[in-house]
Design goal:
Layout (H helix, E strand, L loop, with lengths): L8 H22 L3 H7 L4 H28 L3 H15 L13 H9 L15 E4 L18 E5 L32 E3 L14 E5 L16 H13 L5 H21 L1 H16 L10 H26 L7 H18 L15 H11 L1 H30 L4 H18 L3 H28 L8 H5 L2 H19 L5 H30 L2 H25 L9 H4 L17 H11 L1
Parallel strand pairs: 1-4
Antiparallel strand pairs: 1-3, 2-4
């Protein structure tokens, strides 16, 4: 312990590592599984996309604004502790949102245990009779009419993996994609069925006539339970016509907005405080390795909360949808992070810096074609990545994956970034910054194409290993390019703008558009479209880079490493002039 604990760098770094580790566990408890929980509430893909897009939009602009206010008024520790305390309570508001399917409160755990749910007798008017007609001339016998009709009973939406009914893509009722028999139209007729037996609402029987059924993209038969829920989910997705849907959507939106307003400032305020603290004692270089602790915490949190939820949720939570234990874990770890934030290093020295750095950073991006091209690239990366974050777990759930496998899959990508990081300098030197960006874009496009053709729940794991390149290498290359192209003193503001405004804005737009693409087409089509878009941008990015003028920069570090004889006033001749020699070496290199 040093004489002045304010500048105890070892203690400050230890607290910062613990804080990043705990905050990583905290974020991973909910963030990867949030869209899965919204789906279990009964919200279709467009409304989930709106909710997630709003969340990314608030984080992109509200967080930097709060960080600026906290720095101006010297209230960083107050904001840190207030954000952790407020977000711990605000996250529990989503637990209070009622699901559309009231039977989720009692039937979800029974279905998840592997028991085959038995559907009760349908209530009056709840049975749907589906008739499928192919494009044949009037009066021609249909193949479906030759076979005896069969009746399949399905329980309510979201009852769990075994015998469950989910909304994989939000196709319209009777809409078929990828039929092997060619173009075919399908009509769904709804007929009331009179029954004297009372049963819970939103349950019934689908009477499907015919055996020659077209297939959905991915090989799912149209008569399968997943497509029954797709028809029902699309009916809800067409508009906020149901009062229950309106309440669920608007309560979820209000809860998420309030929660994100309290959570968004935390990360940037903590980063700015720690960087300035270390910079005051000339130890800012030790700040670069702290992100590893956050990824370790996120990997631990994603796997840990998924394992706990699978074992304890049904015994601890009996009156809510699956997923509420994630929010309880988030609140508990937030309380632990609040205790750590009491000792978090916050600088007391006030640095005099201009307040218009954001405007200056924006003018740098607009004035440099390389930065403009890089900003557009980061924006598109955010849009494509948001589709994976929002809907990949839906894709895995439809193929029978458990939450533990989902948590392990995202942890595999984060751990891959840590493993590949020691090769960062070699990769950037061999491929250059532009080449590394191209490699990352190619790997991300390959991942998206792979996700479009998942055939089983475990098949996602090999693709997650590419996240070390598609996420890690892209981040390194973008950060190195920003630091190289930024003017002196503008490296951090410019990096914050790329990470917050451009990447967050792209994630917001990708979430808004992705939900409607999933509803209108399918999740596989969304991933394929993102893959094609990234490949086209990669070709444009590399071609434009060749047309830009080559910059000549002097390596000023060579000017400081000179021999005493080179600086002697008695020496004559340009060959002994250290400035000319340094410039010539730079030009020849």
């Amino acid at each position: 312990m040093s004489a002045n604990p304010q500048w105890d760098v070892s203690r400050a770094l230890g607290v910062a590592r613990l804080f990043h580790l705990v905050c990583g566990v905290r974020d991973a408890c909910v963030t990867p599984f949030l869209t899965l929980y919204l789906r279990q509430l009964g919200l279709a893909a467009p409304w989930v996309g709106i909710l997630m897009g709003t969340k990314h939009l608030i984080a992109a602009f509200w967080g930097p604004f709060c960080a600026f206010l906290a720095k101006s008024y010297q209230k960083r520790r107050v904001l840190l502790m207030g954000s952790l305390l407020g977000s711990a309570g605000a996250s529990l508001l989503l637990v209070l949102v009622p699901p559309l399917d009231k039977d989720l409160r009692s039937g979800s755990c029974n279905a998840s245990d592997g028991a085959t749910p038995t559907a009760p007798p349908p209530p009056p008017g709840a049975a749907l009779t589906g008739t499928f007609a192919s494009n044949q001339p009037p009066g021609a016998p249909s193949p479906a009419s030759k076979s005896s009709p069969r009746t399949v009973e399905a329980s309510g939406v979201g009852k769990g993996p075994a015998g469950s009914v989910h909304e994989p893509s939000g196709h319209p009722p009777g809409h078929a994609v990828g039929s092997v028999e060619g173009a075919r139209t399908t009509s769904l007729a709804v007929h009331p069925v009179t029954s004297g037996v009372k049963a819970p609402s939103r349950q019934g029987a689908f009477k499907v006539g015919g055996t020659a059924l077209p297939l959905l993209a991915g090989g799912t038969a149209l008569g399968s339970p997943a497509n029954w829920s797709a028809a029902e989910g699309h009916a809800r997705a067409l508009g906020l016509s149901s009062e229950g849907l309106r309440w669920t959507f608007f309560l979820s939106l209000g809860s998420m907005v309030f929660w994100e307003l309290l959570t968004a400032p935390l990360e940037q305020v903590a980063d700015d405080s720690l960087y300035e603290y270390l910079d005051c004692v000339d130890a800012a270089d030790r700040y670069r390795s702290l992100w590893i602790w956050r990824l370790l915490g996120m990997s631990t949190g994603a796997c840990g909360i998924a394992a706990l939820a699978g074992r304890l949720e049904c015994s601890l939570v009996t009156n809510g949808p699956r997923g509420v234990l994630h929010f309880y874990g988030y609140s508990l770890v937030s309380t632990l992070a609040l205790l750590v934030s009491i000792a978090f290093p916050v600088p007391t020295c006030r640095r005099r810096e201009p307040s218009y750095k954001t405007v200056k950073a924006l003018s740098l991006v607009a004035g440099d074609p390389r930065l403009t091209l890089l900003a557009l690239t980061v924006f598109l990366i955010g849009a494509a990545t948001s589709t994976v974050q929002n809907f990949l777990f839906w894709h895995m759930k439809d193929r029978g994956s458990s939450e533990l496998v989902m948590g392990f899959s995202v942890a595999l990508g984060w751990l891959g970034e840590i493993v590949v990081h020691p090769f960062r300098a070699t990769l950037l030197r061999k491929l250059t910054r532009v080449g590394t960006v191209g490699l990352g874009l190619g790997c991300l496009a390959g991942q998206l194409l792979y996700y479009a053709f998942l055939w089983n729940w475990w098949s996602v794991l090999p693709a997650q290993t590419l996240s070390a390149i598609s996420s890690g290498a892209l981040g390194w290359a973008v950060k190195a390019s920003v630091e190289h192209l930024a003017s002196p003193g503008m490296e951090r503001p410019l990096s914050a703008m790329f990470q917050g405004h451009f990447y967050g804005g792209g994630s917001s737009l990708g979430s808004f558009a992705g939900g409607f693409v999933v509803m209108s087409f399918s999740l596989a089509v969304l991933y394929q479209a993102c893959c094609v878009g990234l490949l086209l941008w990669l070709a444009l990015f590399l071609s434009v880079q060749r047309t830009l003028p080559q910059e000549q920069r002097i390596n000023y570090s060579k000017l400081l490493v000179v021999e005493a004889s080179d600086t002697s006033d008695s020496e004559q001749g340009t060959e002994r002039d250290w400035l000319v020699k340094a410039m010539r070496e730079e030009h020849s290199g």
